Amino acid sequence: MRKLLLGTLCVAMLGIVNSALAVDSYWTDATGNHRFLDGSNWDNGLPPAGKWWLIINNVPAYPGVGSVLDAYTGGNFCYGLIIGDAGNDGNLTLRNDTGDPWGARVKARADLMVGTAGGTGTVDVIDGPEGLVAGGDISVGTGGGNGTINITGATARVLGRSRTYIGRDEDSTGTVNINDGYLDANVRPGHFVFNVGYYGDGTLNISGGTVDILGRLDVGGYYDVGTGDFAPNASGHIEMSGGLIMADHIYFGLNSKYLSEGNPQIIGSINQTGGEFLFDGANQTLALNRVNQAINQGWWTTGPKMLLNVSQDAAGTHVTVIPPLEVDVDILPCDDPNMLTVNTQGKGRLPIAILGSEEYDINEIDLNSLNIAATVLPVKEPKIGEDVNGDGILDLMIHVSRRDLILALGLDQMEPGSVVPVTIEGTLSNGRFVFGTDDVVLVARED
Question: The domain containing residue 255 runs over which residues?
Answer without folding.
Answer: 2-322
